[in-house]
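Q: What changes when oxa(dethia)-CoA is included in the input?
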Amino acid sequence: MTLQTPNIRSVVVGVGSCLPERKVSNADLAAMVDTSDEWIVQRTGIRTRHIAGPGETTSTLATRAAERAIAAAGLQPSDIDLIVLATSTPDYTFPAAATQVQAALGITHGVAFDLQAVCSGFVFAVSTADKFLTSGSHKRALVIGAETFSRILDWEDRTTCVLFGDGAGAIVLEARGDDSGRGVLASRLRSDGRHRAKLYVDGGPSTTQTVGHLRMSGREVFKHAVGMVTDVMTDVFNDTGTSAADLDWFVPHQANERIIDASADKLGIPLSKIIKTVSMHGNTSAASIPLALATGVADGRIKPGQLVMIEAMGGGFTWGSALIRW
Ligand code: UT7
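A: The predicted holo structure follows.
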C-alpha cells in the first residue's frame, strides 16, 4: 500500500507522447498473415497501430515524448532530476534506455534508470517515482513508458503480431507541498511469477543470448486480466476512501477493448468515462497508458483537479493501479 504524507505530493505538470511515423492497418496485416480486419476488430477493438521504422528506437521515441512533456510543463530538461523509463524493449541489453534519454536531453545531474514490468511498467514507474518524490530525495521526475514491441514480435504468428504497436508517452511529476489536493493519491503494485509461461519472451542474454520473440496464451491472460486489475483498483479506492463514482476518467492499459469494458463494467464505471486509444495504437505495453493520458489531455477531456484512475496487467504476471488527482 502507498499512502503519501499529506505534505508532499507528486503532481502531474506535463504530458507528452510520440508515435512512429508508419501506421499499419488491419488490412496491411491481413496481407501478411492469415487474419482479417473483422477478426481483429471483434476480438480486440484494434484498427491501426504504429510500427517503428529504421532510426526509430525505444530511446528516440522516449526522448521525443519526454521533450514534449517537459515543454508542456513549461520546464527545461535541467529541471529534471529523476528519469524512470518503463520498457521491456530497450535499445540495448545495457545501458538502460533511460540513460540514453538523459544524455539526449542534455541532463548530466540526477539519476535515470529503466524499470521492467512489461505492460504494467508505466504504473510501476509512476508508483516508484512517486516514492522518490514524496521522500524528498528528488524534485521533478520524468516518468516514461516507451516500447518497440514490433522488434520482439514473431511476424508469422497471427495470434500475437496483430495485437501490438510501438510508441512512447511521458509525464512530468513535480514534488509539491501545496494543499491543492492534486497529485498521486495512492498506488498498488502486485506480481506473481508463477504465471511466467502465459506471456513471455523466448530469448534473453542469460539463456539464449538472443533477443527472442514474444509468446502469449492470449486466452489464459484474458482469463486473469479483469479480476486482477479490478482487485487493485478496489484496493486503491479503499486506500483513499473513494469509489468508482468519484472518478472523472478511467485510463486503463490498452490491450483489448473487451478487457477494458469488462473491467469498467465490473466496477460500475460508465463507458463515457473511459479513455480508449486501443483502436488507434494497439497494445503498446508500457507506453499505452501515457499515450492514452496524452490523448485525453490534448483533446481537452482530462483537466487539472479531476480524478484519474490508471491500471495495467501484463507479463510476469505484474499488475497495478494508481489514483491521481490531475
Ligand atoms: O497486455 C498484456 C496482456 N495481454 C493481454 O491482455 C491479451 C489478452 N488476451 C486477449 O486479448 C485475447 O485472448 C486475444 C485477442 C489474444 C485472443 O482473443 P480470444 O477471444 O481469446 O481468441 P482465442 O485465442 O480463443 O482464439 C480464437 C480463435 C482460434 O481459433 P480456434 O482455435 O477457435 O479454431 C485462433 O486460432 O481465433 C484464432 N485466431 C485468429 N484468427 C484470425 C487467433 N489469432 C487470430 C488472428 N486472426 N489474428
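Observations recorded in class: DSSP finds ten helices and 14 strands in the chain.
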